[in-house]
Amino acid sequence: MKLNKELNHSASHLLATAILKLYPNTKLAIGPTIDEGFYYDFDFEKPLLESDLLKIEKTMHKLAEQGYEIKEIKNYKYDFENQPYKKELHESFINEGKKITFFGFVEPKTQKNIFVDLCSGGHTQNTKNIKHFKLLSLAGAYWKGDSKNKMLTRIYGTAWETKEELDEYLQLLQERKERDHRKIGKDLNLFTFNQLCGQGFPIWLEDGMKIHNAIRDYVLRLDKKFGFIEVMTPHFGERKLYEISGHLSHYKDTMFNEIKMDNENLIARPMTCPHHIMLFNSTRRSYKELPIRYSEQSRLYRYEKSGALSGLERVRAMDLTEGHVFVRPDQIKDEFKHLYQMIITALKDFDIEIDHISLSLRDEDNKEKFFQNDQMWKHAENDLRKVLKELKIKYTEFKGEAAFYGPKIDFQVKTALGKIITMSTLQLDFLLPNKFEMHYVDDNEQQQTPVLIHRGLIGTYERFIATIIEQTKGNLPYWLSPRQVCIIPITDEQNKYCEELYKELLNMDVNVTLDTRNERMNKKIRDAQILKTKYLIIVGKSEIENKSLAIREFGSEKTTIYTKEEFFKKLLLQNKKITF
Questions:
Q1: What share of the chain is helix, strand, coil (3-state, %, to 5)?
Q2: CATH number of the structural domain 483-576
Q3: Is 132 annotated as ligand-binding?
Q4: 454 is in an annotated binding site
């Protein structure tokens, strides 16, 4: 299923034509194609409603059926009097020396212009080709993306060559809605946001925190197994720290403004690598100590524009399981093998499949994005190529995707909705050790500079949790589930027994709830299922008399009878499904 860009470009013009027919005084802005369709920005006299989209869509179909030719209109004199946005674009194109072209819908017999737009081209030949389309939604959008400008109304749509493709895409959109972590997070009471707490700062609710802590506990155990030392460093750094590292010059736009106090200029940290370097430099180091592996569950702060914020995927405060390894040059290959195995272990335990591995390199022509040291870059990039080849790992090279300080290996994952994201990363860094004058003493008592490897295990907790929620539709594996067991007494007579059972499960470190509400049992069962509870224990008089438990698993209407010992053993086995 491949999107036809020309068809969608023409569909955006068809939308503008319909809008001017229905709302003649509307001012047009821009209407480009995007990855999955098109949009057009308008300045309406009166607010448009979602319910208006169907009427607009019907008008588009009627216009398309007229069979207008779509072609470039030569020597066209556009009337900019009532179209200020088009006028502004036209003037800026002239000032920039761009070619000015107009494309329009033309009545075949009379060659009358039905609609003309300032446009660089790329269209289907006739409006009759625009048959299978759908207007999807309304949104607000600032003119030119600048919040200082007027808020316009953006209409999103999509167009496909066949009805089958359109239906398939609309089904995909529905699947996205059902998997949207923002919806699931709200339904399952995992997290929330509050304007008074600041945009982009998530508030973890009880069940969300249980997931967060389960991941953290796993990561800490994995770190220990692979030789990492857990550390904790400040949430702030002096401005000078980020000047030395180069982060201030490369990432200033995504860093929070500095706070001036007590003759210090403090900045909320966007990453912890400079802090871990300070740890390394805090004492004399011997070659025998290397590799030194630091790990931290870091709270980081990065400024994202308000329009870019999106649930847990794009936030301004985030928790990241960061790892930094300091090695001798002769240890690079072995350490990469070690860290590669660590990442593979983690992804396997979280049931995440790698789609492909990419080697991200610098773009030699981009002097601003990447630190300028040809020898360093060639050395680092060749080292990573050798490691990947010796490990017999298939990889694809991507130019211009490296970090500013060095190349990296990215572990790419395809989400349940087909989106490719970077899940884990290993970055080789020769730059920061030199900038911070890092040294260790070799076997000849000579000072040498270590190499830094940045290890990103699962990314930020926020984005990782968003991903696994969408992958599973909130039905997490038992060991990650915040709702592992719910005990439901049939009558109040069983409450005392259920309370004892509840305490036993708590002592086993089970995420257990006891529902003694004055509600019908069917409602209690339904509520527990809505919250994706893995096991329901239904306790009545017969269960107490027979010393048994009636168990219903999530997604099943079947009830299975266990002894208490059998069920407890089953729960313990659920937690042993990770690989170490």
A1: 40, 25, 35
A2: 3.40.50.800
A3: no
A4: yes
Two tokens, residue 403: 């970090």
Q: Is the dihedral of CA 424, 430, 433, 436 positive or negative?
A: negative
Query: In the numeric block, which tokens belong to residue 278?
Result: 């300070």
Read off the pTM.
0.84
**Angle 131-135-141 from CA coordinates, rounded to 5°:** 140
CATH classification code of 187-237+268-472: 3.30.930.10
Q: What is the pLDDT of residues 340-397, one digit of tens each?
A: 999 999 999 999 999 999 998 888 777 667 777 777 788 888 888 888 888 888 898 8
Helix pair 495-507, 564-574: axis angle to 10 deg: 30
CATH homologous superfamily of 5-174: Threonyl-trna Synthetase; Chain A, domain 2 (3.30.980.10)
Instruction: Name the pLDDT band for 489 (thresholds 50, 70, 90).
Output: very high
**Gap between the Cα atoms of 422 and 157, Å rounded:** 28
Helical (H) or strand (E) element with 70: strand 69-72
- By the 10 Å C-beta count (0-12 exposed, 13-18 middle, 19+ buried), 513 is classed as middle
- What is the number of alpha carbons within 13 Å of residue 429 lying toward its C-beta? 25
Residues in the chain: 580
Residue 580 pLDDT exceeds 70: no
Residues 6+ apart with CB under 8 A from 54: 135
Burial 220-241 (b: 16+ CB within 10 A, else e): eebbeebebeebebeebbeeeb
Give DSSP secondary structure letters for 187-220. Answer: HTT-EE--GGG-TT--EE-HHHHHHHHHHHHHHH
Find the mean pLDDT for residues 553-575: 92
**Residue 107 belongs to what H/E stretch?**
none
Please measure the distance between the N-terminal and C-terminal CA atoms of the chain and give it in whole angstroms. 41
Structural domain boundaries in the chain: 5-174, 187-237+268-472, 483-576
Residue 181 labeled ligand binder: no
d(CA 428, CA 438): 15
Question: What CA–CA distance (Å, rounded) separates 532 from 553?
Answer: 10
